[in-house]
Write a structure and sequence with these properties.
The protein has 28 helices and 21 strands. It is of the alpha/beta class and 778 residues long. It has 5 domains: 167 residues, Rossmann fold (3-Layer(aba) Sandwich); 76 residues, Pantoate-beta-alanine ligase, C-terminal domain (Pantoate--beta-alanine Ligase, Chain: A,domain 2), CATH 3.30.1300; 210 residues, Rossmann fold; 187 residues, Rossmann fold (3-Layer(aba) Sandwich); 31 residues, no CATH class. Bound molecules: 6-O-phosphono-beta-D-fructofuranose. 6-O-phosphono-beta-D-fructofuranose binds next to loops.
Length: 778
């Protein structure tokens, strides 16, 4: 590689390179400031592919007399360029480019609207001088320096310089951080926060791609997210690619520029923007926007790490994403489940979708009446088993949406039981569950409820078959089936083929998603447990939420706010899990139920148009009951390295009349959420006692754990899931991901069951496992 330090030396070397064997060769120029890294490498490689001769210029800083390259790293820089097959390095000192007698500078006549980074007369003149010295056919830039690239491009166009100019995409680390000398020289703590910049750029790009056009709000929200992550913003702009002016409705190509400063980061203490959560907690205004009463529940979002500006930004985001007009379409019965071409009308099961088809509502009411009759017949003893005995045990067989909701509600409302029926649930294909349950039951006094929307789900089929065999082996009475088996399904013919009596079949409809079906006949165990009045109150609580959701303004719409705050936590503050912390033992199954509701609904990675989403979607939802969790996983929440958000669910009334227990239970819930918000700064010599704080949490206070409140709580989560999906532009109502594993299990089962003639189709690793299991099986 030739190294030239003066314009004269450069000219003579370049002439020789440019004109070889009588032919003129193509020269490219890459201008840099030295300190080379792989990011430069991609630009130089690109220059190499479009030209015969690559010249790299290292532009000096003002008054940089002797350091033609960046000081101490000169040696590394030269070998880096040689390794990248650069032909010529031009490294003039500042006084070579700008001698004392120099009196002219070139400037921009009309500064562009973007005030991102001022390229300035010095740099522009320097670029012009480098271009004049090298006379390149083409200049190649890295996109990371887009503003400077744009200014030079304008200069080339406006001054009729006969050089082409192009830029190449930014090289990024696996976590999205642009490769740069700054990124290499950061402390681990500074570096850890940086991926949020790329994520935020992507979030905004995604928002624009999917129709968001309130640019100032998008910028505001993005800035807050960056500050929230402890980054000092240099600039964050949504611009028109063409002229780098502010983006407008007319913009066809957008350029989103974001830059952050590092070093001496004030870590969320900038009073003009985001303050530590601790300092927000005493703001009297918070209650108004962040505490809401709905259907016997107090939703308290005031421990969320947001302020008014963030809330405005989030509300604008909902508007941009048309969340509420999509909700309207859902409640009107439009087929918003695109991949299955189905309506999503579980609200109609509780009278919460008045615009839904009349016929649909009639079917719902008719089925409800039949459910009430069955419950009354069983609990009054009018319905008897085949030997005339009253029913004492209900065994509900179903899985996923046909199980989780009913079991949760039956357990949670145990204090609202109206009769002595014992209700059991069998979901797993593991026979442990079925056999243990059957061991508690007598065939003459047991009613089996088989709940399966499809009536084709493996677990339910196998369990139902075994339950029927258990019954027949003990009773020998085929006619007895009619007294001991009922089913809920959309697939009535499959249920009949199973041998079930038509009169014992309760319909379900394709417009009810499995995980939203507990309000239908799938909820029969709930009805059997809490009776007609209780079940009606449960539906009514959910309907109150439907009405609120459809009519409340965005800023006070509880399900929408929940979803927006979740977005803020997941997509802007980097929370990767949602902990559901129920401070009531009766709600032990709530996290399991919500796992299906939220994760099966929104665990998606393509949008509604089938394109890959470019933002994180549903994080991991998990949880348990307080105070037990405090002695298990709360340590990690307080001092671990994962960002999270949590929902605290508490019940205000002491329903067991044990005041000491109840007061401690509530005190612990509030103490935990307070600790998560305010953290603890220990003495300098006790870093192990530091608690970071600044974790957003929501506190949900049920007046009582009663049917109305529980119905309202679950419906709120349902609508939150809908809003979340609308914000992410994903279909929350299908679940294609569960199919592959099911399919792969089939040939494995055939081998385990010794079905002959089935060739092994598995990979070697799976085959070895299978052989091992076959050997070990008795
Ligand atoms: O009610 P079915 O058709 O038996 O389905 C049970 C569950 O299986 C799934 O299809 C997949 O897990 C769930 O969505 C559904 O709730």
């Amino acid at each position: 590689m030739i190294i030239a330090r003066t314009a004269t030396h450069l000219a003579s070397e370049l002439d020789a390179l440019r004109f070889k064997n009588g032919a003129q060769r193509c020269v490219s120029l890459v201008t840099t400031r030295g300190g080379f890294h792989d990011g430069h490498g991609t630009v130089i490689n690109a220059a190499d592919t479009v030209s015969d001769i690559v010249v790299v210029a290292v532009a000096p800083e003002p008054n940089q007399k002797n350091g033609n390259l960046v000081t101490a790293s000169e040696f590394q820089d030269i070998s880096f360029l040689e390794n990248h097959h650069v032909d010529l390095l031009y490294a003039p000192a500042d006084d070579e480019l700008f001698p004392h007698s120099f009196e002219f500078m070139i400037g921009v006549a009309q500064p562009h609207a973007c005030d991102v980074v001022d390229v300035g007369a010095y740099r522009l003149t320097q670029h012009l001088k480098l271009i004049n010295a090298v006379l390149p056919n083409i200049m190649v830039w890295g996109e990371k320096n887009f503003v400077e690239f744009h200014s030079v491009r304008q200069m080339i166009n406006n001054l009729d310089i006969r050089t082409q100019i192009q830029c190449v995409p930014t090289l990024r680390h696996a976590d999205g951080v642009a490769v740069s000398s700054a990124a290499e020289n950061m402390t681990a703590a500074e570096r850890a926060n940086l991926p949020i910049l790329y994520e935020t750029l992507n979030n905004v790009a995604h928002a624009i791609r999917t129709g968001a056009r309130t640019f100032s709000n998008l910028e505001k929200t993005a800035r807050l997210a960056l500050r929230g992550a402890g980054l000092q913003i240099q600039y964050f702009k949504i611009l028109d690619e063409e002229n780098l002016g502010a983006a407008s409705e007319k913009t066809t190509t957008y350029r989103i520029l974001g830059g952050v400063k590092l070093g001496n980061i004030p870590n969320l203490t900038d009073p003009l923007t985001q303050q530590p959560l601790k300092s927000l907690l005493n703001d009297k205004q918070r209650a108004q926007r962040l505490q809401h009463q709905l259907a016997g529940i107090w939703f308290d979002f005031s421990k969320q790490w947001v302020d008014g500006v963030v809330l405005d930004g989030l509300t604008a985001l909902a508007h941009d994403r048309n969340v509420m007009s999509q909700a309207k379409a859902m409640l009107a019965g439009e087929a918003i489940n695109l991949s299955e071409n189905r309506a999503v009308l579980h609200s109609a099961l509780r009278g919460g979708a008045p615009a839904a088809d009349k016929d649909m509502q009639d079917q719902v009411n008719k089925t409800l009446s039949r459910m009430f009759k069955l419950e009354a017949d069983i609990t009054s003893g009018r319905w008897r088993g085949y030997t005339g005995k009253v029913i004492t045990d209900i065994v509900h067989i179903g899985i996923g949406g046909s199980h989780l909701g009913p079991e949760l509600v039956v357990n949670a409302l145990v204090d609202h039981k109206t009769n002595s029926l014992r209700i059991h649930f069998v979901a797993n294909i593991d026979a442990a569950e079925l056999t243990r349950t059957l061991a508690l039951c007598q065939p003459e006094t047991t009613l089996f409820i088989i709940a399966s929307k499809s009536f084709g789900t493996l677990e339910t089929q196998v369990n139902a078959k075994s339950a029927r065999s258990w019954f027949l082996e003990r009773t020998g009475s085929l006619e007895g089936i009619a007294k001991h088996f009922v089913a809920i399904t959309t697939n009535l013919s499959a249920a009949k083929a199973f041998g079930l009596d038509e009169a014992n079949l309760f319909p379900l409809w394709d417009w009810v998603g499995g995980r939203f079906s507990l309000w239908s006949a799938v909820g029969l165990p709930i009805l059997m447990s809490i009776g007609k009045q209780g079940f009606e109150a449960f539906l009514a609580g959910a309907k109150e939420v439907d009405t609120h959701f459809a009519t409340a303004p965005a800023a006070a719409n509880v399900p929408l706010l929940s979803a927006l705050l979740a977005t803020w936590n997941y997509n802007f503050l980097g929370a990767r899990s949602l902990a559901v912390l129920a401070y009531d033992e009766r709600l032990k199954l709530l996290p399991d139920y919500l796992q299906q509701l939220e994760m099966e609904s929104n665990g998606k990675s393509v949008n509604r148009a089938g394109e890959r989403v470019d933002c994180a979607t549903m994080p991991i939802l998990w949880g348990g009951t307080g105070t037990k969790g405090q002695h298990a996983y709360h340590q990690m929440l307080h001092q671990g390295t994962h960002e999270f958000t949590a929902d605290f669910i508490i019940v205000a009334q002491d329903e067991h009349n044990y005041p000491e227990h109840h007061n401690w239970l509530l005190a612990n819930a509030l103490g935990q959420s307070q600790a998560m918000a305010i953290g603890h700064l220990p003495a300098e010599n006790e870093p192990h006692k530091a608690v970071a704080g600044n974790h957003s949490t929501t506190t949900i206070v049920l007046d009582a754990l009663a049917p109305r409140q529980l119905g309202a709580l679950l419906a709120t989560y349902e609508h939150k899931v809908f809003c979340q999906g609308a914000i992410w532009d994903i279909n929350s109502f299908d679940q294609w991901g569960v199919e592959l594993g099911k399919r792969l299990a089939e040939p494995i089962y055939a081998q385990l069951a010794g079905h002959t003639g089935q060739p092994a189709t598995q990979d070697l690793v799976t085959q070895h496992l299978l052989d091992h299991l076959k050997n070990k099986k008795r």
